[in-house]
Design brief:
heterodimer; A: 452 residues; alpha/beta; Rossmann fold; elongated; B: alpha/beta; ATP binding (chain A); ABC_transporter-like_CS (chain A)
Chain lengths: 452, 387
């Protein structure tokens, strides 16, 4: 939304953050982690909602945060305004570390950072009048005199396009779009510098969405606001944001200038995500990159690249260079099936049955073999590995079989988190091993896999 | 390219291929203590074998009520008060629940927005698919299990046989929707009604489900009615589109002309307000005002108060569905007093007011002869004011 030129510091080496580093940085996030503790019967692993992200937001800019549900984007937004306490890492706001603030200090700082919630139905108290709802932050901070507070609320109502006679009405008398305006007015009451917009339009119809997006843009121009816009609708983000961060499983996979990211996505996940957007143009060509399996559990993320279990472009070990794309694809599928099985078998009932020998994990192995490799010719070298996998499966269950497959067919993708490589002169970064000097690039035909 | 797409459809209408489903003047009203809501207010459309009709509209426009009316799923206080739903010529309106059951599933199947609420959480997915197979295909035992596994495989769920033993909560959202599609296919329907089937899903999963539906349609020559609020999804999946606004269909056209050259001011406004179509626009276009609630039968154009192009007559004449230009093949139909474009305003106002004139003049496919239009009868304006 703002007109700042992000490309001016193109040569800057910024290995951890995509943003150009100058003194206009409002928020700097470093290696931020937010985990949710669990006390499950079988596992005490925390849910790693945000798992080490670093980026910066410049004053006056709009950073978009996109990703599928469960990728941790809302948790990240809530952590930035300290509705969640970070497990590790730093968030500095205007130069001061706010990740460890508490008590009065935290309350004092919160005036600067507000949030607009996704669902305008559930994010306000239906028993309070609209005026009272918007006044609540002012009351809570004992802002000036009650008379001035009321005047401020009227000013805010006007600012967001409502009328001052709406002061004494109740939320249920308003439409979804109007309720979202009330939520925006409440967030702006204390004149914050930074506002997290958590899917502000996803509950609204397109024609209403357009009005709210225009309003947010006007408010930014007028008040010099800095936004973090969280959305799953990529076209909204493209329209509204200066830069975009793409999240997957608690990690930022790619972050950088909006237009460049949309026109020339560097990361395989960004490519997959963008290829999935339905375009409102029936004549458009689409080449979708299909995505296998379901996203891994954030309680037990993959050990290497977070996207490795579903990535259609994983690095292939040299040993298997001469396998056909189709066969390599089947091996991927084979691993996916076992992964899904491992997840399904991880129950108390299955464990007990297996312990007393009632459940043989390899009993229907022939079926997997048939459904994954049934219609392709499998060379001896691969067949041997599949046979060995069966043996491991029978002896040690799915985890043993998967470990063997990873050892034989895995690569850096399975074991090492890729670094955030700078991919263009605007400082955009992407986490993928294909950006490394010693690995063939994504678009190089030798080892790159076509998008099918 | 758009001509190439439109041509076979036009041919279909001309060649008198019987539509699989023909909805005519359908009206569904909800009676509450406070008011009557005319959720579906006299809509017409046909679905031909093997094609996908997209119904698009904002919330409250009546798209879901349309789907439920077709399936006979309208519950009190809602009632179908007029019109017909003809499936292979047989009118479904007025049939008893027992009679309708013969059609549901085996002829017309439906999938809903939220896959979790459509599945029973205490039975395995396999159990539920086999139940459908037993009811509709008379299969049971290992035969049913084989068929169920095959169905799951056909909706691209890997390791299908093992997956039959899973409970719905063990499936991801996308897999649940796939399982529901498998159940719908179990009955081997000819028409599949999809009511916002991808709205609750992520874009990547949505893309998979859309691809799957297209694949299934090709393989089985299935006709689909696809209901959504998402113009992007409509552009991808529909052959023809009906745009709904406040209980009425205000524009019908093959998908390409609709997106390339929308005619109704509402359709235009709606398309202009989508960020995806206007990624470089500094500001998004907006439509002033809000969607009205239809508390009585339409006596005027419901969009007129928000319309940037409203004429004097819009407030008192209910527009008829007319071709964009008089003499067109009737594939692109608009309910707006601005059309037919090649006629004078005076002529158009007269024609829309009396309705039959245009219908007769153009062999519009929805009318098999000039059938009388109820709303025009009860809607006698006092005088004509020219602008």
């Amino acid at each position: 939304m703002s007109e700042q030129a992000h490309s001016q510091t193109g040569a800057t080496e910024a290995p951890t953050a995509g943003a150009a580093t100058d003194d206009e940085t409002l928020i700097a996030v470093e290696n931020l982690k937010t985990y949710y503790e669990t006390d499950g019967l079988r596992s005490n692993d925390p849910v790693k909602a945000v798992d080490g992200v670093s980026f910066e937001i410049e004053r006056g800019e709009t950073l978009g945060l996109v990703g599928e549900s469960g990728c941790g984007k809302t948790t990240l937004g809530r952590t930035l305004v300290r509705l969640e306490t970070p497990t590790d890492g730093q968030v500095s706001f205007d130069g001061t570390d706010v990740s460890t603030l508490s008590g009065d200090d935290l309350k004092a700082w919160r005036q600067n950072a507000q949030i607009v919630f996704q669902d305008p139905e559930s994010s306000m108290n239906d028993r309070l009048t609209v005026g009272k709802i918007i006044r609540e932050p002012l009351d809570s901070y004992e802002w000036k005199t009650p008379r001035e507070r009321r005047a401020r609320v009227r000013e805010l109502l006007d600012l967001v396009g409502l009328r001052s006679e709406h002061y004494y009405r109740y939320p249920h008398q308003f439409s979804g779009g109007q309720r979202q305006r009330i939520g925006i007015a409440r967030a702006l009451a204390l004149n914050p510098d930074f506002v997290v917009l958590d899917e502000p339009t996803s509950a609204l119809d397109v024609s209403v969405q357009a009005k709210i997006l225009n309003l947010l843009e006007d408010l930014q121009d007028e008040l010099g606001l800095t936004y973090l816009l969280i959305a799953h609708d990529l076209s909204v983000v493209r329209h509204a944001c200066d830069r975009i961060a793409v999240m997957y499983l608690g990690n930022i996979m790619e972050i950088g200038d909006t237009e460049r990211l949309f026109t020339d996505p560097a990361n395989p996940y960004t490519r997959t995500l963008l290829s999935a957007i339905p375009t409102p143009d029936p004549t458009a060509d689409r080449e979708r990159i299909p995505l296998r399996g379901s996203p891994p559990s954030p309680q037990d993320p993959p050990s290497g690249c977070p996207f490795s279990t579903r990535c259609p472009m994983t690095v292939r070990p040299e040993e298997w260079d001469d396998l056909s794309e189709e066969l390599w694809d089947r091996i991927d599928l084979f691993r996916t099936v076992l992964r899904e099985r491992a997840r399904g078998a991880d129950t108390l009932g299955t464990r007990v049955r297996r312990t007393i020998g009632l459940d043989d994990p390899a009993a229907d192995f022939e079926e997997i073999r048939e459904s994954t490799f049934g219609d392709v010719t499998v060379p001896e070298a691969v067949a041997v590995e599949v046979d060995e996998t069966e043996r491991r499966l029978a002896d040690g269950g799915e985890p043993a079989a998967l470990a063997y497959l990873q050892d034989r067919f895995g690569s850096d993708c399975d074991t090492n988190l890729p670094a955030a490589h700078v991919v263009d002169d605007s400082g955009r970064t992407s986490r993928c091993h294909h950006h490394r000097e010693d690995v063939a690039g994504l678009d190089e035909p030798t080892s790159a896999r076509p998008d099918r | 390219m758009s001509d190439a797409m439109a041509a076979p459809r036009a041919k279909r209408a001309d060649d008198d291929i019987e539509p699989l489903l023909a909805v005519e003047e359908l009206r569904t009203v909800f009676y509450t203590d406070k008011e009557e809501i005319h959720a579906v207010d006299g809509i017409d459309f046909e679905v031909y074998p093997g094609e996908t009709l997209g119904i698009v509209g904002e919330s409250g426009s009546g798209k879901s009520v349309t789907a439920r009316s077709i399936m006979g799923l309208i519950k009190s206080p809602g009632h179908i008060v007029g019109g017909s739903v003809r499936y292979r010529g047989e009118n479904l309106v007025g049939k008893s629940d027992a009679e309708l059951r013969a059609y549901r599933g085996s002829d017309i199947a439906m999938i809903f927005q939220d896959p979790m609420t459509s599945l029973n959480p205490v039975y395995t997915v396999g159990n539920q698919i086999k139940e459908a197979l037993e009811l509709h295909q008379d299969l049971s035992g290992s035969e049913a299990t084989d068929e169920a596994a095959e169905l799951l495989e056909s909706v691209n769920i890997p390791d299908a046989r093992r997956r039959l033993k899973s409970y719905p909560h063990e499936f991801s959202g996308g897999m649940r929707q796939r399982a529901l599609i498998a159940m719908a296919l179990a009955c081997d329907p000819d028409l599949l009604i999809c009511d916002e089937p991808t709205t609750a899903l992520d874009v990547t999963t949505q893309a998979q489900i859309l691809d799957l539906l297209e694949e299934i349609q090709r393989e089985r020559d299935l006709a689909m009615i696809f209901i959504t609020h998402d113009m992007g999804v409509i552009a991808e999946i529909a052959d023809r589109v009906a745009v709904m606004y406040a209980g009425e269909i205000i524009e019908r056209a093959p998908v390409e002309p609709l997106f390339a050259d929308p005619k109704h001011p509402y359709t235009r406004g709606l398309l202009e307000s989508i960020p995806g179509r206007n990624p470089h626009a500094a500001r998004l276009h907006t439509i002033e005002g809000n969607v009205p609630t239809a508390t009585g039968p339409a006596r005027s154009c419901r969009f007129a108060p928000r319309c940037p192009k409203a004429l004097g007559g819009c407030e008192r004449i209910r527009p008829a569905a007319v071709p964009v230009n008089e003499g067109d093949d009737g594939n692109h139909v608009v309910s707006c007093l601005l059309y037919p474009e090649n006629r004078s305003e005076e002529w158009r106002l007269d024609a829309h007011e009396s309705q039959e004139t245009i219908d007769d003049a153009n062999n519009e496919p929805r009318t098999d002869g000039g059938h009388e239009n109820e709303p025009a009868d009860g809607d006698k304006p006092t005088e004509v004011t020219d602008e």
